[in-house]
Amino acid sequence: MYLHVKWIIIISFLSITASPANANIINTKLSFFSIKPLTCVVQKIGDTCQLMATVRWKADIPANLCLVQDETKIYCWKNKKMGTQVIPIELKDTTNFTLIDDGNTVFASQKVNINAIQPTKTRRRLRSAWSIF
Fold first, then answer.
1. Residue 127 lies in a domain
2. N or C end of the chain: smaller count of CB under 10 Å?
3. How many structural domains is the chain composed of?
């Protein structure tokens, strides 16, 4: 139990302290892009993660930009220089989010990771369950 709580605290700390520098800004017209949290914690690998992600971006000129999860547009901003939105997201696996314009030009991308509390496989016992000593 203590180990599980310890991992949750560590993962939460990492997701809170993660800087927007982790975002891959591709287009020079975009000066800032972030998605928080960067990590979602599930009970075991394969579980669906549901979270409320905060997306923020800032551009030098007004633009029509959309946030894309894998191949699906999940939110769009029209003629804006900056955007902030809290979006409900479901993840099954580590997912790449992309900020694109009307012409599908990629402005920035950010990966959101999934971590599991339970280990992926059980540890093999190193000695017999019984012993003389």
1. no
2. C
3. 1
Strands 49-69 and 72-91: antiparallel
| Residue 6 forms part of a structural domain | yes
Q: Looking at residues 24-52, what average pLDDT do you find?
A: 84
Return the CATH number at 45. 2.60.40
76-115 tens-digit pLDDT: 999 999 999 999 999 988 899 999 988 888 889 999 999 8
Name, in order, each residue with C-beta under 8 angstroms of 6's C-beta and a sequence gap of 6 or more: none
- Reported in sequence order, the residue ranges of the chain that DSSP labels E, i.e. its strands, are 24-25, 30-36, 39-42, 49-69, 72-91, 95-101, 106-116
Q: Which two tokens stand for residue 13?
A: 């700390």
Q: Which two tokens stand for residue 93?
A: 């696996």
